[in-house]
């Protein structure tokens, strides 16, 4: 089933916020709130409350409306002593004790409310009328002219829409016409609904259903919420469309900046592991910052900066882990070289005492024989180490670029036309 509100909400959820300036982002938030309110409004059934003096046939008419015997009809007065709601859409919140009867065949989205006689329990009737989208005053040929009925009609003035039904009309055609005229005159109405004592209530049911469509205060609220939500949606769609050019420029910028080569940079292998690691990390971070700045500059700043905010700061933990692995590997290599010529136990101790880059640390005494072997391997190792570090740094930068690209692609994949269509579907023709 097509649900314009759900479609609209769905389209709003997909709007890439980074394409919106703060004002437009607020409008998007407002549109989402309106959609949520709408979802609640359309799920509340509209209520049709029947009120009148005892014995005029309220319960009988409620049963006609819902198509089943939902509320007791009786000869003993008063019959109805409690508010009875009947319908297929669930109850409405009435601030009074009441029953709810499920009537599966009842018209969609409506709840019909049977009330006790007004003269019996005015409080209950008022509580029910307070929720009414349509109030129906039920009168009968014997009960229409009394003061109680007039009072009730007056008290129904606050209901969004009220109609009168003359129930149990009987007699000759002339008598009927006269009766209808009396009732119209009494309530200063040009139109009333009439139910014959022995006819079926079809025309009454039609009148009520026609009467309730577009009558309720919920309909008004819903219409306003729909319009304002749809306007907000259209505005956001046009803001996203306007941002498409900027997004295109940013996409180009990322391509142009490309992966800046760290290969040309000198990545130092220092005396201690800690110093080396810090240097490398600072270097990679620096490359990342430079890359971000270049993209933001070339990409036209505004949207680029918002996407950068979303990307957040670069997570260096993976690089750190790779570096730690590589360090262990390098240390192992030195260890192997050292064991060639020296007792293993001594070598281990030596490696612990000296810096990780054994052999170049001149502050630690290293037996000459060990130093000779290590030194012979050092240049090769350092150059090997250097190229591995460059690979690590390059991989980190490439991943950053991939982050940029996927953010831009995600933002660019949103189709403002879909939001526009959903907004138009929401506000209706
Ligand atoms: N033939 C016929 N009988 C009706 C009609 N409407 C009501 N009645 C009868 O009138 C009597 C009273 O009807 P109810 O529907 O119980 O009246 P009510 O207004 O709900 O009365 P309370 O619950 O006491 O307030 C019952 O015996 C119904 O069968 C009608 O349109 N045609
Ligand atoms: Mg009743």
Structure description:
This protein has 429 residues and is an alpha/beta fold. The chain has 2 domains: 44-215, P-loop containing nucleotide triphosphate hydrolases (Rossmann fold, 3-Layer(aba) Sandwich), CATH 3.40.50; 245-424, no CATH class. Helices cover 59% and strands 9% of the residues. It contains 14 helices and 7 strands. Strands 3-2-4-1-5-6-7 form a 7-stranded mixed beta sheet, sandwiched between helices. Helix 1 packs antiparallel against helix 2 (22-43) and helix 11 (317-339) packs across helix 12. It is elongated. Mean pLDDT is 83; it is low at 352-356 and 358-364. Bound molecules: guanosine-5'-triphosphate and magnesium ion (MG). Guanosine-5'-triphosphate binds next to helix 3 and strand 6.
Write the layout of secondary structure elements.
Blueprint: H1 4-13, H2 22-43, E1 46-52, H3 58-66, E2 83-87, E3 98-102, E4 110-114, H4 122-129, E5 134-139, H5 147-155, E6 162-169, H6 173-187, E7 193-196, H7 202-212, H8 217-257, H9 273-298, H10 302-311, H11 317-339, H12 344-353, H13 368-413, H14 416-427
Parallel strand pairs: 1-4, 1-5, 2-3, 5-6, 6-7
Antiparallel strand pairs: 2-4
Helix pairs in contact: 1-2, 1-14, 2-8, 8-9, 8-13, 8-14, 9-10, 9-13, 10-13, 11-12, 11-13
The protein binds guanosine-5'-triphosphate and magnesium ion (MG).
Magnesium ion (MG) binds at residues 58-59, 79-80, 114.
């Amino acid at each position: 089933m097509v649900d314009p509100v759900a479609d609209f909400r769905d389209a709003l959820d997909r709007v890439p916020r980074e394409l919106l300036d703060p004002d437009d982002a607020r409008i998007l938030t407002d549109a989402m709130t309106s959609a949520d309110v709408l979802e609640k409004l359309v799920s509340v059934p509209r209520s049709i409350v029947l009120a009148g003096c005892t014995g005029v046939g309220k319960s009988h008419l409620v049963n006609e409306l819902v198509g089943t015997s939902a509320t007791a009809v009786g000869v003993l007065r008063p019959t109805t002593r409690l508010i009875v709601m009947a319908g297929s859409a669930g109850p409405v919140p009435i601030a009074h004790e009441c029953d709810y009867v499920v009537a599966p065949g009842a018209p969609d989205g409506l709840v019909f409310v049977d009330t006790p006689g007004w003269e019996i329990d005015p409080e209950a009737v008022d509580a029910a009328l307070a929720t009414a989208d349509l109030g129906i005053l039920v009168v009968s040929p014997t009960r229409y002219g009394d003061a109680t009925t007039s009072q009730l009609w007056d008290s129904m003035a606050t209901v969004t829409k009220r109609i009168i039904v003359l129930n149990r009309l009987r007699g000759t055609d002339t008598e009927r016409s006269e009766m209808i005229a009396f009732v119209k005159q009494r309530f200063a109405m040009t139109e009333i609904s009439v139910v014959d004592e022995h006819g079926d209530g079809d025309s009454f049911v039609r009148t009520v259903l026609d009467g309730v469509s577009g009558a309720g205060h919920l309909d008004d609220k819903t219409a306003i919420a729909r319009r304002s939500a749809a306007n907000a949606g259209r505005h956001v769609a046009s803001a996203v469309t306007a941002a498409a050019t900027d997004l295109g420029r940013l996409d180009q910028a990322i391509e142009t900046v490309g992966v800046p080569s760290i290969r040309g940079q000198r990545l130092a292998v220092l005396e201690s592991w800690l110093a080396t690691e810090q240097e490398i990390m600072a270097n990679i971070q620096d490359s990342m910052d430079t890359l971000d700045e270049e993209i933001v500059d070339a990409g036209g700043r505004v949207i680029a900066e918002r996407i950068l905010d979303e990307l957040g700061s670069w997570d260096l933990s993976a690089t750190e882990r790779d570096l730690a692995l590589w360090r262990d590997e390098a240390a192992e290599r030195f260890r192997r070289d050292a064991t060639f010529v020296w007792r293993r136990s001594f070598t281990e101790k030596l490696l612990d005492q000296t810096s990780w880059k054994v052999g170049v640390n001149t502050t630690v005494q290293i037996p000459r024989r060990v130093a000779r072997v290590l030194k012979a391997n050092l240049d090769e190792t350092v150059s090997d180490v250097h190229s591995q570090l460059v690979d690590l740094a390059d991989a980190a930068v490439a991943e950053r670029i991939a982050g940029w690209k996927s953010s831009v692609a995600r933002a660019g994949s949103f189709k403002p036309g879909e939001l526009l269509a959903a907004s138009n579907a929401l506000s209706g023709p």
